[in-house]
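Hmm, what's this shape?
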Amino acid sequence: MFRQFRSQVESALTDALSALDAPTDDLGVEEPPEDVDAVLASSVAFRLAGELGAAPPQVAARLVDELSLDEYEYVADATTQGPYVNFTPTDSYLADTLDAAATDEEYGRLPDTGKSVVVEHTSANPTGPVHVGRARNPILGDAVARVLDYAGNDVERHYYVNDAGRQVAVFTWAYETFDESDLPEPERDRADYDLVRYYRKGNQFLEEGDADAVADAEAEIEAIMRGLEEGDEEAFERVEVVVDQVLGGMRQSLARLPAVFDEFVKESRFMRDGSADELVERLKNSDQAVYEEDAWQLDLTDWDIEKKLVFLRSDGTTLYTTRDLAHHEWKFTNYDEAVTVLGEDHKLQAEQLNAALELLGNDIGQLRHAIYSYVNLPEGKMSTRKGTGVDLDDLLDESIARAREEVESRLDSRIRDDDLTEKDIERIARQVGIGAVRYDIVSKQPTKAITFEWDRALDFEAQSAPYVQYIHARCCGILTEAGVNVAEGQSLNLGTIDADLLDAPEERALVRTLARFPAVIEEAAEDLEPHVVATYTRELAETFNAFYRECPVLTAKGEKRDARLALVAGARHSVANALDALGVEAPTSM
């Protein structure tokens, strides 16, 4: 209802400003501070003071006099508070919010937009297990895809596989060269952990081996790369042996988050179908193409980019970026919008890519990037090539183990009298442990660097995943005691609820918070910033806790009890769906 309320406020303000012959391009609509009893406020009087020749409070008063609110279902009143105009809701706003939140299991989802969106994320080189330093990409990427899905888009999740670069050629050569007996034991019994030993061994050899032997190895590596460039099927098959096995293992790690993909799009696809070669010819014929330093490059100074973009080497081989340009043109042909999740070290490449795509005649309005900073552990940075650092599997295992300890330490203090089985404890530990990792990472603004800390992520009392998850479990407990079989998906069925009975400040605050949820999804999708959903979940949890402390539910009488149960059901749906939009599970018990 918040979105409808906002639309009605904007419409009323536009009409009033037009009546005053004032511009309507900036309405200044915003959410007021918590201590203001209004759903929305407008600061437009500040902007119009000079134009209308009056102080902002006087402009606000004139604006209120011009406002006509009778035709609007959800806007009850507009009042001034100094230079601000505050808008309060009607009873229908609260009643319709309660009805929608309490009865709709999908509450928070927006209507279908009819738009197809492809989200490319993770796309880590298939050279070994996923490590923590890159974990923000699949977590953020999956959350971006989820909020776009909640916002009504038809979303596909893609992993772009670098199967044609030097690293993969080195990997293929090493896999074919070294014997199992030359390698240490794998850290886990899985293909990516098994094969990464060859990759590490190969890099060590290239750095430390005899000069003549290294030269021979480099010639073999170059031959693999040349074979790929020339479309040699044998070269593709050799590389696939390594890439597909490693990807299989990486997918198992990512599925634990979970981060799943609709398609793994291989870089070599655009070499094999000729689209990369065709794109090179178009680039060569552009006015920005120059041949310098034995390579074809694009001069992108018209786009305020000083560094030239190399798209073809002197030996006639293409680069990753060249093939990625073909990849993006393929996306533009098949989807309405393309979103790519990238680390901050790829920001320049993203700018070059945008410029080159525009140069080629593409509508770059179809492309958006979500840029993020990396995740560090207190131990420092990590490197797959040297075999140091912490793998994602290690982080998730540790988080589940620590969550289990926390859950077991709280068994004696649980309010609910149900007995948790060993299976229940394992489930909760997994939900809380993995949820803590995801939530802690996705809850931060993407451009801010993160140092992951266990105590903060697994704090049941602070603003963390367990804190929010516990609200869902508490809602489920209340509804279960009221006779609703939440575990089997049963919904509350109370018929018509009188929202007017919810007159306590804590009740009304909770209804207003629930009303904002669809708008939060809308904002997160528009800005590609899932952390705003995480911020909302914390606010919702705090608001629910205040309601729970002050407004008994199960001991309330008659219609008051029903109304409060509906409010609990609405909170459960909102928490569950907000967490789901972040990729965090919502436990039914904790």
About this structure: The chain has 21 helices and 14 strands.
